[in-house]
Amino acid sequence: MTKPGRNDPCPCGSGRKYKQCCLKRQEVPAVSAHERAPTPQTLRLAAEHHRAGRLLQAEEACRQALRAEPDNPEALQLLDALSGQLAALHSDQGISLHAQGRLEAAAASYRKALALKPDFAEAHYNLGIVFSELGKLEEAVESCRQALVFRPDLAEAHSNLGNALQVLGRLDEAIASHRKALALKPDNADWLYNLGIALQEQGGADEAIACYRKALTLNPALAQAWYNLHALLLDAEGITAAIECMKKAVEASPTNADYRFFLGMLLDYSGRADEASAYLDAGGRSAGLFRARLDAWRYIQSLGGKLPQMTGSPIQAFRLGMGAARNDGLVLEFGVRFGCSIRLLAALAGQQAVHGFDSFEGIPEAWHDEPQGSYSTKGALPAVPENVALYAGWFDDTLPAFLDKNTGPARFVNVDCDLYSSTRTVLELLADRIVPGTVIVFDEYIGNERWREDEFRAFQEAVARFGWKYEYLCFSLFTKQVAVRIL
Questions:
Q1: I need a surface site. Which of 129, 168, 283, 410 has the fewest CB within 10 A?
Q2: Sheet hosting strand 388-392, strand order edge to edge
Q3: Rounded Cα gap, residues 287 and 289, in angstroms
């Protein structure tokens, strides 16, 4: 009898094609020798692999036994033990890959560990660190939170959660996480420093100073704590205290160009030019940020007369600016992002309304090394006080409509546009609202590597175009801010 073809009618008389009927029943997948083996033999093989440390082979043998006998207690018990060991193996691989800088591969290993052991707190925590380094901050927050579900006492997870929240601008949550970490390990100098940074960004200068001082009592070589402390003491205690801090920073890290510049500038500002030259003269022959900062400092010195006040924190520039604004009028901010600075302005403005403008989609074009879209919140608006109104969109779309509905001059303007083009747009649209007594604080005006091309350039062009006369109220090469008052 001739064997029917695959598309011929099936000889069994079913009326279906041969390939859909009897042939299909004949095409049974091949079964491996291990799968055909009796369960006890397969389990013995699994146990041998386990004793020899061949974990993957032991796992496969267990699964073969369970395919034959799904409820076999010996196979289930061994597989449970193997899952924990394999999770540890994948986690160790993740740690090794992370140390090699292979972040995506490390994340994949941690995910494998967590697929086997979802309550593996350390793997969640380590995955959170990798996410932070990859810039995936929301994922980092979630991983740290998962770690803390299973290990609420894992102080390191509280600390890293605080760091991720801080970068996201969620300062209240960040501070709470840092405090939880320190409640578990109160003598960790690095964590005290991290809490100090968060408090400093929030405007809590006194408590930030206390954190830095405690951190430095525990670790006097923590140079970055001396560096941040100097800025706060500049506002709170004056330039002598700031100089002493920067001397400690340079002592702890003698080759750090940032520390050497700031010490030299502080000495120069205080009239100790001979001492300053040891730190500043080499910078004149250097490229990069040191040279840009030195250029900015020489620009400030070139203004003539009494130098403007030097400040160390954004809130101090805001205080001076608000206090110096001579007229009633609008309080405006351009570049809100996470809302950190507008919350400070809202507190200083009292009951007066503060109006914040931002696309919340990032910068509209590349800014030097920052690509288009940098600083985006992905359209999410920050939580702000009741006296703050936010306007989402590009400045040239939202500001004209706002000005049509709101009369009067500008009292205080915080320009955190970064870009030359965005700053120019704001100043041109506000030109007839900028009057004698208006104070403008620029956030990226001075001291970044290409400062003359950005907010500085836009303002100087506006000064020439609109005939403004102005004075500098204060400057900071630490925050890169200046405050100017229109005369």
A1: 168
A2: 309-310, 470-476, 481-486, 439-442, 410-415, 330-334, 354-358, 388-392
A3: 7
Residue 60: the pLDDT is 85
Q: Quick one: 108 exposed, middle or buried, by C-beta within 10 A (0-12, 13-18, 19+)? A: middle
Residue range 141-155, pLDDT digits in tens = 999 999 999 999 999
Q: pLDDT of 179-235, one tens digit each?
A: 999 999 999 999 999 999 999 999 999 999 999 999 999 999 999 999 999 999 999
Alpha-carbon 254 to chain mean position: 28
Name every residue whose Cβ is closer than 8 Å to that of residue 117 and which is 6 or more positions away in sequence. Answer: 83, 84, 87, 123
- DSSP helix/strand/coil, 357: strand
Helix axes 239-252, 223-236, angle to 10 degrees: 180
First to last CA, the chain: 109
Is the pLDDT at 34 greater than 60? The verdict is: no
CA distances from 127 to 103, 159, 180, 259 (A): 9, 14, 20, 33
Q: How many residues does the chain have?
A: 487
Residue 23 banded pLDDT, cuts 50, 70, 90: very low
Question: In degrees, to the nearest 5, what angle opens at C-alpha 381 toward C-alphas 376 and 384?
Answer: 130
Q: What CA dihedral angle connects 248, 250, 253 and 255, to 10 degrees? A: -170
User: d(Cα 64, Cα 41) in Å, to the nearest integer?
Assistant: 11
Amino acid letter for position 384: V
Tell me the longest C-alpha to C-alpha distance in the chain: 114
* Residue 448 DSSP code: S
Contact between 171 and 342 (Cβ < 8 Å): no
Sign of the torsion formed by the C-alpha atoms of 279, 280, 285 and 286: positive
Phi and psi of 362, rounded to 5°? Answer: 90, 180
What letter does residue 20 receive in the DSSP assignment?
A: G
What span, in angstroms and rounded, lies between the C-alpha atoms of 274 and 125?
A: 51
Query: How many other C-beta atoms lie within 10 A of the C-beta of residue 431?
Result: 12
Rounded CA-CA distance 487/435 in Å is: 8
